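Long-time lurker. I teach an intro course on protein structure, and each term I like to show students one example going from raw sequence to a predicted 3D structure in token notation. This year I'd like something fresh instead of my usual example. Would anyone be willing to generate the tokens for the chain below so I can use it in lecture? Attribution to the forum is fine with me.
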Amino acid sequence: MTDELSPAERYAQARLRAADQATALAPFREMYEFDLDPFQIEACKALESGKGVLVAAPTGSGKTIVGEFAVHLALTRGRKCFYTTPIKALSNQKFGDLVARYGAEKVGLLTGDNSVNSDAPVVVMTTEVLRNMLYAGSRSLDGLGYVVMDEVHYLSDRFRGAVWEEVIIHLPESVTLVSLSATVSNAEEFGDWLDTVRGDTQVIVSEHRPVPLWQHVLAGRRIYDLFEEKDSPEGAPGAGRREVNPDLVRLARMENSRPSFGRDKRRGKVMREADRERERRQRSRIWTPSRAEVIDRLDAEGLLPAITFIFSRAGCEAAVQQCLFAGLRLNDEEARARVRTIVEERTASIPDEDLHVLGYFEWLEGLERGIAAHHAGMLPTFKEVVEELFVKGLVKAVFATETLALGINMPARSVVLEKLVKWNGEQHADITPGEYTQLTGRAGRRGIDVEGHAVVLWQRAMDPVALAGLAGTRTYPLRSSFRPSYNMAVNLVAQFGRHRSRELLETSFAQFQADKAVVGISRQVQRNEEGLAGYRASMTCHLGDFDAYSRLRRELSDRETELAKQGAAQRRAAAATALEKLKTGDVIHVPAGKYAGLALVLDPGLPAGRTNGHRGFEHHDGPRPLVLTAERQVKRLAAMDFPVPVEALDRMRIPKSFNARSPQSRRDLASALRTRAGHHEPHRRRKERAAAADDTEIARLRTEIRAHPCHGCAEREDHARWAERYHRLQRDTRQLERRIEGRTNTIARTFDRICALLTELGYLQDEEVTDDGRRLARLYGELDLLASECLRDGVWEGLKPAELAACASALVYEARAADDVAAPKVPTGASKQALAEMVRIWGRLDALEEDHKISQAEGVGQREPDLGFAWAAYRWASGHGLDDVLREVEMPAGDFVRWCKQLIDVLGQIAVAAPAEGTVPRNARRAVDGLLRGVVAYSSVG
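-- Reply from a regular --
Happy to contribute to a lecture. Here you go:
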């Protein structure tokens, strides 16, 4: 029993309570039914004291409460607050949350194509909208007191990340910044930078998950825990330490020692995946369960609702169908009726004739059973319905791509990862610890679940120890992707002039990280120089100058390497010459690569050089023949598939009815190919005499080496090893020194090169922005300079609205994967000529960028315009039906809507930037009207 407090102590506590009640935080805390966590209280107090904050905390921990407190402070103090998010879906969700709390009159929404109550004191917007406001000097910035940057770790995104840094750098000093981030391993470094550019910033890091996360592996019919607690006496070393489940390790060792069943020995045929899985199940105690089995097992264990991450849109759709075919039903009749009511209410505005093409009825059947997909290819309305039903517990199994992990408030009891490998745009790569943390962070609903569960499906060759490392690592560093752009350059020069703009860019997080890295590299150079002194002493020879002797040996090795490269180049040239002789109908034997073997030439490709094709002037490194392989695949081959010259073995006639997209056509022609030419053997080439055998320089070097005094040293090879180490370390040191030079002022040097190019084109003149430059300042996007050049050259003058939409689509569209089978279809007439002219202008800009050393590989410069959406944009803007357009372009409805919305955004920019006396502004607005109808108009709030 504690002693009663003295009067002085009671008075002191009363003073503290009174002071606490006088803060803005006290009434804010009363708005919530639960107590705030310590990190939330710490961040809110820092905000109220006038500091900026960086809050780094796990997904689902409630860091957005700090952002909502900034909104509360702004309203209390009569200031404005802008709440920025990286994606429109998250903006829509946060807009709905704030409207529910503060009322529709106090909250607005601004996205690329929507404006709702934009003069409200609280406005939710995408980050790009705020960036554009800052450059335009918008009056909406008057009275701005707080900016919340939700998901600020997006600044690592190589495509859009620069926007976050632009906003942070250019916000007025009077604005308090609230940065909300996932758990990153270099939060202190990011906080140091914010402190430098924004003033006093407090960093609050919380790694505590409000709902504990349990990690599992589902193998066969059993769910294994990934970790087990080490059973040691309390206080003993290692007590409470987690170790990988020994049962899993034993299982992996046993399974991975089993032979693979890839071939049916009785028939000598390659087995289908389904047959292989069936045989594996028969011979093994464990297997990878099917998607329906996984959901069924989770349901039995009480682990639903669950999100299963599949790194493929087609895989998500297939998973839903597999569950439906398996007869899974996760909803009772009452839930099914509620689902149908909500769906019909939310989709009432969709015309009946569009429902079939959108796959509405199949989608509804899955929802009624409690099963759905969620990915970027879906109609936004469909995705929003899935999110709403999932939160209400009416959808219990969602198959989603990783985009769902980015910000959308859609927590589950369990998260399932099918595989730990995904396609990153270039190759299949293991997911990183940061990606694993982001995905599994969805597991565990605060206030609902006692614990969350992350389930990884068993795969052959799985290493439980590696998986444990992935699950136990919290390495998720924030890396800047900031690069200057043409639009950024003219906007900065217009506001600050060249010199001040250069200084501003030097304050970017990218330069901050580069400068910090230089310190570590300089230390490494010093250590290397000490090592070089030691190696130099060890390679000393009493017979002569061993440094000169080792130099002769290196020259000999370099010359031999050079001759080998020349020989390889000659072979490549001979192979390219042979490829240029191929004709349609030639039967060849592809000598190397993934598609090695018998093949039929469908199209010999274009010769090396510059040609005038359907997209204007194009550059080609050499022929890339389109072939049909004996295995029925139609592929565009590359030079690497032909390391040696190829000759026609035979010729075949290709039927006029042959369609490369038709499986039946490919099967019939491949069968004819095997029958006609299956007996042919590839030509075998005789090995040629090596060029090194007759080279006079090699003969001279060998003579000098044999004549050198050190050649006769008994310890020659020991000295040579030290000399080789010396040479390697010296080369590495020079590379480090070049890196130091390259990392100093990198952003400013890129800015200088961009300004030099803009000056040559007449967009800048010394410290001034020209009229053309002011037009470029109003064009945002990847191809800003190309759009500006097209306006200046009058490329789009006289085009009809639908034709202008087709041309503008090339500025925004970018195919998800290259389609080598056929060139994209484009409208005929004036728009085709305009598209060809756009590609010609891009070719000129590309050459100019090369002259100014502006590299697309570094994230700067103009990519080639992609014409893949031109036909769809033209048809839709012309008034054709959704069914006709989607069938012709073979594109998911969600992708179609997304590209249309981006096209509407860029057409709006063109309407503002184009000369008022021309036809372009009027036709751009008409094109927007033609596009903003039907499925595009009703797709979503934002």
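Some talking points for your students: The chain is about 50% helix and 15% strand. Confidence is low (pLDDT under 50) at residues 235-239, 261-271, 609-620.
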